[in-house]
Amino acid sequence: MRIAVIGAGIIGVTTAYELAADGHEVTVFERRSSVAEETSFANAGLVAPGYVTPWAAPGMPAKVFKHLLSRHAPVRLARPMARGQLRWMWRWWRACSAASFQANRQRMHRLARYSQQRLAALTHDLRLDYEQSSGYLVLLRSQQDLVLARTSLKLLAELGVSFHLIDAAKARLLEPGLNPQTPLHAAVHLPNDSVGNCRQFAHLLRGEAQRLGADFRFQHQVLGLRGGSVPIVQHRAVDSDAAATEDRFDAIVVCAAMGAPALLSPLGCRLPLVPVHGYSITAPLRQIDGHPTPGPRSAVMDEHYKVAISRMGQRVRVAGSAELGGRLDRHSAPALQTLYKLLDDWFPGCAQLSQVQAWKGARPMLPDGPPVLGRSGTDGIWLNLGHGSSGWALSCGSARALADVIGGRPAPIDLEGLGIERLKR
C-alpha cells in the first residue's frame, strides 16, 4: 500500500517506521525541517508505564484550583484560553469520575506496557543508542507525600508493576548525587522503567525508516485531506506561493498533533484536542577532575511538585508543569523558576546553567486521557493522536498496533476504548 503519514514527531516517526517495516510505500509530510522539532523536542524522556495515567482523575479539579495561586503550582491556567478550552475542561471534569479514571488508566497502562516492550525490541534489534539508562525513583519529601502516594502504590500493585517502597538511605544509595540537605522521607523505586532521549531516538528511527524506503518530505505544509477509495493529500512547500500539489495514496495516517484539528474538521471529524503546555530546561553537567559526574544516574521525580530530573548523556534535563491556555511563544517565568528550584533542591551545582536551553511544548491532550487510534470515520484516513504528555512512553506501541490494524491483522493488544467512537458519546 502507498501510505501517507502526516507529522514527524515521535508518533509520526514510529508510525512511519512500522509501516515501512511491513513493506508499505511510506511518505511522511512534515512542516518543520527535521523530525521531533515540536512536542517531542525536549520532553522528560521517561518510559514508566505505571505512571502513565489520565490527567482526568478523581479529585484532580479540586487540586488544580487549590494550587492556582501557589508560586510553584504543578498545574497553571494562562491567558488567552484556546478555542474550545472551556468546553474541553467541562468534558475533562466529567471524565474525572472514579469509574472513568479506572477504565482509562487500564487502557493507557496496557498500551504503555506494550509500548515499553516494543521500544526494548527495537532498541535491541536495531542496536539503537539514544542516551538511555535504567531505573526511576519517585521522591517523597515527607510523611504526607507518602500518605498521598498510597493510592498510586495500590494502583501500581493492581496493575502488576514492579516497584519497591524504600527509605531515604536506600534512595540515596541508588542516586548518590541527591542533596543530603533536602528532606527526603522515602522513595518509590521502579527498576524496570527507564529514561532516554526521545528526539535522538526519533532521528535514529527516521534513518531506519529511510533505509526501508520511507520518503520524508520536510518543510511541506499539508493544506487539506480528502478521503475515499483513493485518499488525497493536498500539500505544498513551506513559504511557497505555488499551487497546492495533490498526491494520491491508499491510506493516510494523521499524526499531526495540534495541527490535526484543522485537517480533520472539514471531514466532519471534530476531536476535542487542546494543547497542554509543558516546560523543560536542559544544561550540560559539570565535569570535575577526580570526582564522579554530578547529577542523576537515571531519572527522579519529585512527587510533590510533579517535576522530573533526568540524565541525558552528559546533560541534565528538568521537566514539568501543565499549563492550560497561554501561547506557545510566551514562557511562564514561575514555571521555569520551579524547574530551577527543583534542580537546586536535589542536585545543586551539577549543571552549567550559563548554557541552559529552555523549552516549552504543546502536548495534544484529549479530555479523558487515552489517545485515539484507528479509523477516523472517513474512508482511507486513520488516526494516531492525542497522547498528551505520554507520547514518548506510548509511541512505539501505538505505531505497531495501528500498523497491524491497517495491514488487516489483529492488534497485538486489546484496543478497547482507544477508538474515536468513545469521543462521540
From TrEMBL:
PANTHER family: D-AMINO ACID DEHYDROGENASE, SARCOSINE DEHYDROGENASE-RELATED. Residues 2-404 form the FAD dependent oxidoreductase domain. InterPro entries: FAD-dep_OxRdtase, FAD/NAD-bd_sf. This is D-amino acid dehydrogenase. The keyword Oxidoreductase applies. Keywords: Oxidoreductase. Belongs to the DadA oxidoreductase family.
